[in-house]
């Protein structure tokens, strides 16, 4: 499959998506697997095999030469791939992470465990503890509200996202001629693309 045909549709942005952290993680994992984890393969698919270049027997002697994986990719081809595939997929993940971050920091009156958590906290506040008789009696591990659990998941996923994008951008710069001449990194390039998209 050509890299240009990769598609990762953004799921409907609802609190249910965010609080279903298993599904949320699966969406992010599958999206990264389709693009970032296989970025070298995706870039190789952009190379059109030459029909005019004759076979060079020396290429079988030194595997580091004349390999498709080592061929530079035209700047225009890389730019199209970046703007039509890479950034839209990154944008899809960014939308989900940003939306869920808002959910994680908003009041959550629909939390099904809210009443039980409040009751446990109230009971704990009125409990008389004598650690001389039982040194473990003072230990209390309240259940986290689901917003706090979601916030923890998002912290981990955002850290993974930055690592993955750094790696993808590095590989693309190695393979593409003039992809990032300013060397400012993917953050500035992605922000510029996103601002341009919003203006159009």
Automatic annotation (TrEMBL):
This is Caffeine-induced death protein Cid2. Residues 191-200 have a biased composition (Basic and acidic residues). It comes from the Eukaryota. Belongs to the MIX23 family. GO terms for cellular component: mitochondrial intermembrane space. The lineage of its organism: Eukaryota, Fungi, Dikarya, Ascomycota, Pezizomycotina. Residues 179-200 are annotated as: Disordered. InterPro entries: MIX23.
């Amino acid at each position: 499959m050509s890299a240009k045909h990769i598609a990762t549709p953004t799921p409907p942005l609802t609190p249910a998506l965010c609080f279903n952290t298993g599904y949320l993680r699966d969406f992010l994992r599958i999206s990264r697997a389709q693009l970032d984890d296989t970025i070298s393969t995706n870039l190789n698919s952009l190379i059109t095999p030459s029909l005019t270049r004759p076979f060079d027997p020396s290429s079988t002697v030194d595997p580091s030469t004349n390999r498709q994986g080592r061929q530079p990719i035209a700047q225009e081809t890389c730019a199209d791939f970046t703007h039509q595939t890479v950034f839209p997929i990154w944008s899809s993940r960014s939308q989900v992470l940003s939306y869920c971050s808002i959910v994680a920091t908003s009041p959550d009156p629909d939390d099904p465990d809210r009443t039980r958590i409040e009751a446990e906290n109230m009971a704990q506040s009125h409990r008389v503890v004598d650690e001389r008789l039982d040194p473990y009696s003072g230990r209390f591990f309240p259940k986290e509200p689901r917003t706090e659990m979601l916030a923890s998941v998002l912290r981990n996923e955002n850290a993974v996202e930055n690592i993955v994008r750094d790696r993808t951008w590095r590989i693309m710069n190695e393979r593409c001629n003039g992809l990032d001449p300013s060397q400012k990194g993917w953050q500035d390039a992605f922000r510029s693309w996103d601002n341009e998209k919003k203006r159009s």
